Amino acid sequence: MKEVHVGLLVDEISNLFSQLICNGAYKACQETGAKLSLFFGGFYENTYQKFGYQKNMIYPLADTKDLDFLIVSISSICRESANKQKLLSYFKDVPIVTLNQSFEGISSVLIDNETGLKEALEYIITNCENHSFAMVAGPVSNNGSNIRKRVFVQTLKKYGLENEIYVEHAPLMERSSVESIRTVFKKKPQTDVLICVNDELAISAYTVCAELGKTVGKDVLILGFDDIHEASCLQPGLSSIKSPIEDLGYEAVLKGMESLSTKTASHKVLPTKFVLRNSLGNHDFLESPLLKEMESLFQEEINFEQFWQQVVLYLQEDILSLKRIMEIIYHSDMKDASNLLRSNSEMVDFFGLGHDFMKVDVMMFVELIENFSHFAILHTNFETEDQSYNAHRHVEKMLHQVASQLNSNLVQLENIRYIETLQINTLARKVMMFENEAECHRNILSSLKELDIQNAQIYLFDHEPECLSFNALPNKIRLSGEIVEGQEKIYQDGDMVSLNRIISKTEKWQSNRPISILSIYSNTKLFGYILCDVSLERYAQMEFLSIHIATSLHTLSLMKDLKNQSRKDVLTGLYNRRGFEEKVGGYFRRNKQSGNGDFYILLADIDELKKINDNYGHKVGDIAIRKGADILRQAFGTNGFLVRLGGDEFLAIVKMAKEEAIVESLERAQKQINQEIPLDKDTNFSYGMKRIDDVERMNLDDLLKEVDILMYKHKKTKKKG
């Protein structure tokens, strides 16, 4: 059975939303045996930022029959509806699955923007005394924001709060949008319930409340959306709508496979749920649905394993919630609390909360100590002093475990940060240390390997295009180097590959990691692309390194330009004398075995250039010199080595069958160029020519002297005639 190859197009490699989608898609591909390619683009025709449009140059690679289907995070890539349709219409060779917005005839996976938010709003209205509402929405073109805004308006109207409807639109749904939050309190200073369309804006609201001396959870109630990790770490914890972002990527893979099988488009909506924390005030902790589930476990027989599983689930939502959990135990009629405390195997799961526990900082640890002290309330449930003593000893032991785990995690985290910072700085310097093109490419590949990349390919354009339109890119690109199962390979003259077939070149990679595709650009220049099997944890480092790779390639390009300028004549673009001396040997080697005929050397100068300068000015004289260069290109361009020695003097080395053929080509070119670029006086050459008898033993200085004499004889003959 053919392996299914899935593509995923997201907006930013460093965006948390995109990373979670990638994680979910990767998990689904692992479970189904599919292959995953990740395309990290930019905002499509973005009007809010003046950078990042270069990343859009990744789109042509995603429109390929090498993929069975392409998942497009359309709502985060495009803001304008017209741009969304325009972008989707670009992909003609690959079926599409969209995220967070549906389109006719295209499968999609959506997050329910309504249910969780409606539940939260109704909770605030019915349980809180505050009723002066405001909402901070995203850009008016953002589909998800508009749905959440509609729910806000409809819910307030349902409860007769039409007069409380106030919406401020932020230009960006990011925590930098503090000015939009300030505007809310300027225009509606009595606001005491602030609804934010995502957690990033809610975090901005915390900042503004601190500026204004308002206490979150008391003076102002704040609700976010998405429930990012920081939501549970804020003081007080941010109430939010838990959004299954990772499931978006996971379900999109399954939806794409379903569409491949059924040949029909369909849609799936993922549920959201309200997560209550103290940003909505100190309310009855038992109102949380998850806490209610935990309370239901306290029946006649306690299932300890289920209980601690619920503890872990809840702490992943709010890691500072141990106090609430202890209060559940206290308020229950449980008579066997000592057994609960002795269930060490289940408690170990709590102490190893994985990456969430890794993020516990010192202040949070202080909170944990305080929360653990609430185990003391359990003494009322113990029948003897021995049971109470044992319980306290058990708490002490658990606290010691937590402290040890935290210390270990902090040391490990600091080591990781130090090593990653040191490594990326070392790699950034490494890619900039080179003396020639081959060394530059070798350093790039070596740096990729140090990010634990086993397979990679570097594709570069022969001539860097401007990042103005991905529709105007060259059709082909050159493979300059690759890593194959850890082995580096540099190509001086690598294969040219069609842009929409690059993905197929990774079919032999043995890695089960996703293939990440990034643009290599600097300012407005697009140098090419990197394809690599970087691990999910290294995404951010990979983007940082790609910036330095682009800088090194830009430096290499400048070095080439400087070398070319030192070898080329500025006025005509032909080789100058230095270029002639450095490059003529290579010309002979390349053409020695090609075609029939002999090498000839021709020295020519423009007739009466001094009179042209004297009578018409040096600008016209420069035009005549450029015409002279055009004549030589027209006559010998594909077959000759052309040089401007200086002033009006030119040199050509060509390989042709007969001397007469050279004369005919030159005279024909003179006639054609003079017709195409008319001046008051035609541009013509006097020349001297000689066959090179033995390339290996020739003496160029002697040859130049001979043809110089022949050229002046020709000039005198023309004057007499």
Mean pLDDT: 80
End-to-end span in angstroms?
A: 83 Å
> DSSP helix count?
25
Strand content: 15-25%
What is the CA-atom radius of gyration, in angstroms?
Answer: 36 Å
Shape: elongated
Tell how many strands the DSSP assignment holds: 22
Give the helix level as a range of percent: 40-55%
Secondary-structure-derived class: alpha/beta
What do you see in this structure?
The protein is an alpha/beta fold. Helix content is 47%, strand content 16%. The chain has 25 helices and 22 strands. The strands form four sheets. Strands 1, 2, 3, 4, 5, 11, 13, 14, 15, 16, 17 and 18 form a twelve-stranded mixed β-sheet that branches. A four-stranded parallel β-sheet has the order 7-6-8-9, sandwiched between helices. A hairpin with a 2-residue loop joins β17 and β18. α1 (16-32) crosses α10. The longest helix is centred in the middle third of the chain and has 47 residues, at 385-431. Residues 330-364 and 372-380 have low confidence and may be disordered.
Keywords:
four-stranded parallel sheet; twelve-stranded mixed sheet; about 15% strand; alpha/beta; 25 helices; about 725 residues
Brief description of this entry?
The chain is of the alpha/beta class.
List the helices and strands and how they pair.
Layout: E1 5-10, H1 16-32, E2 35-40, H2 59-62, E3 69-72, H3 74-77, H4 81-90, E4 96-99, E5 107-111, H5 115-127, E6 133-137, H6 143-158, E7 167-169, H7 178-187, E8 193-196, H8 199-212, E9 221-223, H9 229-233, E10 240-242, H10 245-262, E11 267-270, E12 273-275, H11 289-296, H12 304-317, H13 322-331, H14 337-341, H15 344-351, H16 355-358, H17 362-372, H18 385-431, H19 437-449, E13 456-460, E14 476-484, E15 487-490, E16 496-498, E17 515-522, E18 525-532, H20 539-567, H21 577-591, E19 598-606, H22 609-616, H23 618-636, E20 640-646, E21 649-656, H24 659-676, E22 685-691, H25 700-720
Parallel strand pairs: 1-2, 1-3, 2-17, 3-4, 4-5, 5-11, 6-7, 6-8, 8-9
Antiparallel strand pairs: 10-12, 13-14, 13-18, 14-15, 14-16, 17-18, 19-21, 19-22, 20-21
